[in-house]
Design brief:
This protein is of the alpha/beta class and about 325 residues long. The protein is built from ten helices and 14 strands. It is about 40% helix and about 15% strand. A seven-stranded parallel sheet has the order 3-2-1-4-5-6-11, with helices on both faces. Strands 12-9-14 form a three-stranded mixed sheet. It has a two-stranded parallel sheet with strand order 7-10. It starts with a strand and ends in a 7-residue tail after the last helix. The structure holds UDP-4-deoxy-4-formamido-beta-L-arabinopyranose. UDP-4-deoxy-4-formamido-beta-L-arabinopyranose binds next to α6 and β8.
């Protein structure tokens, strides 16, 4: 099998390439390097620099490398930015996906794994979110991921393409310091940034209907997430015509305050957080039921939040050496 990993030079993509390679699969990375970093692509793994909107370049990559499966991670993923730039998000995340699927089906590639998101659920009013929980995305980013799932599913049904859409919950951690997330758009790096600046971490609202009043999320280690992609790729290769939609989470809720307390302990900064007003659009609780991924893929997360925060901090201090001194 040879898998084309779009976005394979990104934070999550690089972990997927690493996991697929360690599992003995051949990989080729396709990335426009707009946010990806070429140094993340391991020696021996070909890198094709290009946009998902460039159908001709994708078609060449598929045939030049004898691609037999695609894992599509390349997308714009900042919720706040998507509100300001919906046209860019729909172009990259939906039109880009359409162009890619056109090339994939024209080349007769049989398997397609799609990076979706828990953002498709919006504000689910349930204790555990299952794949049957109604989807009501609250941002253009979440809308593009839900529309992407529809496009993938419809293409699979029309052409026989075997597909899996993986709904990522809150991703954190790193397999190695040099692979850590260099973006600062999610809780863990945002708290690191505050601590490094000797400023108090911020809790966006503590008046939610949760045990400690702060939002509860399902954090998933990026290494576990990458393993889920390997399991999904193999499941599709084993059973043509599959059409899977799976939550990729741990099934365990952790509150913002609990995460900040853990980050303070791991980093040694121990700086009490301040509470600021709620961030618009934040649901009180989004925690996955991961039962279907266990049943369909035999996959289950192995790492806990301590592993995530510890490895993320090792990555942060790798990129910000001055931060190591609490
Ligand atoms: C988590 C919680 C904040 C920073 C995102 C996106 C998307 C999706 C899931 C991939 C929220 C709170 C944050 C801070 C805080 N992943 N917070 N202080 O919004 O749950 O979802 O990840 O598709 O990326 O939808 O993640 O990390 O932004 O916030 O209190 O300094 O932490 O209010 O409750 P979110 P997040």
């Amino acid at each position: 099998m040879t898998w084309l990993i779009t976005g394979g030079a990104g934070y999550i993509g690089a972990h997927v390439v690493r996991a697929m390679t360690e599992a003995g699969e051949r990989t080729v990375v396709y990335d426009d390097l707009s946010t990806g970093v070429a140094e993340r692509v391991p020696d021996g793994v070909p890198l094709v620099v290009g946009s998902v909107l460039d159908g001709a370049r994708i078609a060449r990559a598929l045939t030049d490398h004898g691609v037999t499966g695609v894992v599509h991670l390349a997308a714009k993923k900042q919720v706040g930015e998507s509100v300001e730039l919906p046209l860019q998000y729909y172009r990259e995340n939906v039109e880009g996906l359409r162009v890619l699927l056109e090339a994939v089906t024209a080349a007769g590639v049989p398997s397609f794994v799609f990076s979706s998101s828990a953002a498709v659920y919006g504000m689910p009013d349930v204790d555990l979110v299952t794949e049957e929980t109604p989807c009501a995305p609250m941002s253009p980013y979440g809308e593009t991921k839900l529309a992407g799932e529809w496009l993938v599913r419809a293409t699979g049904r029309a052409t026989g393409l075997a597909t899996a859409s993986l709904r990522y919950f809150n991703v954190a951690g790193a397999a190695a310091p040099e692979l850590s997330d260099t973006g600062v758009s999610n809780l863990v790096p945002m708290v690191f940034e505050r601590l490094t600046a000797k400023a108090a971490p911020r809790i966006f609202g503590d008046d939610y209907d949760t045990p400690d009043g702060t939002c509860v999320r399902d954090y998933i280690h990026v290494v576990d997430l990458a393993e889920a992609h390997v399991a999904a790729a193999r499941a599709l290769h084993a059973g043509p015509g599959r059409d899977l939609t799976l939550n990729i989470g741990r099934g365990e809720g952790v509150s913002v305050r609990e995460m900040i307390d853990l980050i303070n302990a791991v980093t040694g900064y121990d700086r009490p957080p301040t509470v600021t007003p709620r961030r618009p659009g934040d649901p009180a609780r989004v925690v996955a039921s991961a039962d279907r991924a266990a049943t369909e893929l035999g996959w289950k997360a192995k790492h806990d939040v301590q592993d995530m925060v510890t490895s993320a901090w090792q990555g942060w201090t790798h990129h910000h050496p001055q931060a190591a001194r609490a």
